[in-house]
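Re: Re: token formats

Sure, here are both.
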Amino acid sequence: MKLKLIVLLTLCMSPFLYSQDWNGIPVPANAGTGKIWKIQPQSDDFNYTYEASTNQATIGGKWTNFYHNTWDGPGPTKWRYENTTVSGGNLHVFATRQANETKTFTVDCDGDNIAESWTMAATRAGCITSKTRVKYPVYVEARFKIANAVMASDIWMLSPDDTQEIDILEAYGGKATRNDWLAQRLHLSHHVFIRSPFLDYQPTDASTWYTGATKTYWTDKWIRLGVYWASPTRLEYYLDGQLVKVMDNLDTVNGKDGIDPLNYTSTATPRTAATRTGLVKEMDIIINMEDQNWNACKGRTPTDEEITNFDNHNFNIDWIRIYKPVTDPNLGKQDAKIEEKKLMLFPNPFKDSIQVKSEKNISTVQIYSLSGTKLLVEKINNTNATIATKNLSAGMYFAQINWEDGTSVTQKIIKE
């Protein structure tokens, strides 16, 4: 009996038995015909403790507590090992300032194409880098609360040679008059670079600064933001489960292809459109805060008084999850299950009601939002029923049909 109790306690304490924070939240991107999403080992729910270290260290076995090379950050930023902790189920990446510590940097602040030298109070900040890399097709999504600071809260992917970059999140959440325009926007973008001589393409159209339908200060709430890096030429951005932006080589930005209009990923000399590769390189995942040169030189850097407010300068990340589309091992089995029971769910799209019919008794129908929230449960215990859907707003949902024999299927449904 004692041995059984020890085994039971050991199993109960096993981290593999705990539900991940994102359980029940479906991946909003389409994995493709015959594909399903498979979770990747880089995913992290931050349900552990990591205390700040003044030395290089590993966080949760998945991250290092610094940038992916020796650079210490842009502008007045000084990335520091000790500005990262994990506690309370969250990763904390934060900014501080040391008395009399300065940093000198160059920036063309006035737009005259001449870089000037600036010396400012240094801003210490946390930065972590994944120990393993990701490559398309891959979906990367995080749940976080942006810092209420005029400096940037960032989650991004970057190739080891610093020539290809995908910005999942770049946000300046600080509620300050000098920062009001930025505080109401999320920067959704990417870069392709040539390092020598330095050339950088980044789209600048209005869609790269996402505002939402109404005036929103993004630091006020926890949000989910994800990017499906579907191919070398396609990026899909999802905010709280909803597609908000697509960038690909079919979009036009000032009449040019969206991913690489200047041929910076070209493999030929001279560079040509026909030989450009798009975003093809493996990338590290980086999470950090930074005080950027172009922003700092315009006064959008934390004041000494502002930065003493730790809570405002703490970027909180609840979790980050990474998925790859893989061939569905049950391909055809769900169709067979539907065919066996002659299931019909109609109309689809629907308006105020939806009809469900089957040759075998259905116990319940459950309707979920794309974020995994259960919105409706209808007990049927029959072979057919009409489900009232007047209280559902227009959009896409998941309907889970449960039969009395214990089997179930899930289908996407759309309300007009």
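Second one below.
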Amino acid sequence: MASFFSVSFWFGALHIAFSLGITAHVLLTKRDTAAATGWIGICWFMPYMGPILYLCLGINRVRRRAQKLREYTTPEETAFLAKWTHDAQDSFMNPLIKMLDGLTGLPLLKGNQVECLHNGDQAYPHMLESIHQAERSILLCSYIFRYDKIGRQFVDALATAQQRGVEVRVLVDGIGSGYLYSPIIKQLRQRHIRCARFMHSLWPWRMPFVNLRDHRKILVVDGRVGYMGGLNIGDENCLNNATHRRMPVADTHFRLEGPVVQQLSEVFIKDWAFTTREELDGERYFPDPVAAGDIPARVVTSGPDMEVELIEYTILQAIILARHHVCFMTPYFIPDDRFATALELAALRGVVIDIVVPHRSNHPITDYARDACLRQLVQAGCRVWLGAPPFNHSKLMTVDTMWSFVGSANLDRRSLRLNFESNITLHDEATAAHLEGFILAHCNDRLTLSDIEVWPLVTRLRNGVCRLFLPYL
């Protein structure tokens, strides 16, 4: 009996010690009070399992320099800034421009051309053509890179480019492109193409990294032509192909030319250096830029290695500055309190807020969590539209038909706070008009308050429970 009490005493003492240590860590590191309170409760009321969950999912172990890889300190780089930095005229977006000047350290660059490409049917031929025309370098990053019919076309094109002397680097996410087994990495290595898996490890002490994902989709060719947006690489993104087995996925990608492509290169090179310790630089990756159009643009990134959520801050500031109309299209929509409040206040002051989400996405639990957030927004006057199939994976935002914000980030806590994402601001009326028209063309089935009120109690309870676990789905 004495031995039994002795064992119980030590188990209890260890539980208290672990919980006190984790409570101190949470109080010193967590900015979100709701998350802090939740983790403290889990650790105290779930002996041993709570601390294990926190060690696996609650600690940000990623530490990288928050500043740019290149500091623009040489005479050549200073001349680059003087020549290509956009001189903002009087505009209602000037406060946003100034905010991003300070937070990103990246200038708003003029002289760019942007082409919007819908679905893999439009985007993949452009991307493959650019790879076939490459002369010096190819940088490719994708969250999902399948080795299917489309994937094989990309692997063949990359291998051919490398054979003619082009420097090729491919980075895929350690989860999105296969965790235990990655067919695309196997094929790339067999073709002797330099490739890596971001944040991937099978060692138990590194497995907590699986909660942090590189969600970026970037292709840069010769430092002059860039592609970015929401499009992964896989057969399901080609809607004209009726034979694929997966759910067909509509998406939107963007082809860029001009000085802003250098910023896109920096994003990839920073991730590559973090993953492989190889730093890429020089004329091969950063050639002297050439004006390709007249669109001012700037890349905005976010990730758990940053002190602030830059993409979320950009969206919030744009909502605050909006005067007439804000349009969103997103596959996953779970706004936190400050995001939802910004939308509600804008709607209450007379700004038309249109939010297009899929009627059903490829992640049902995410849909349930989303539905738990919609009542308050609809009550405030936001117009929520349920898009018809095929599932649309585009991530688009426009403000007053003058400004656009597009890229890889979804409107949920995972994208805005846990994933590594890349978006781009586009100060161009023609692009905004095209994207706004595209979004509004999907506004056919509006969700009303009366629709929400007839949801059964069991449905609303299910939705509320799913919302609690969203950051880690």
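Residues 64-70 have pLDDT under 50 and may be disordered. The longest strand covers residues 109-118.
- S.
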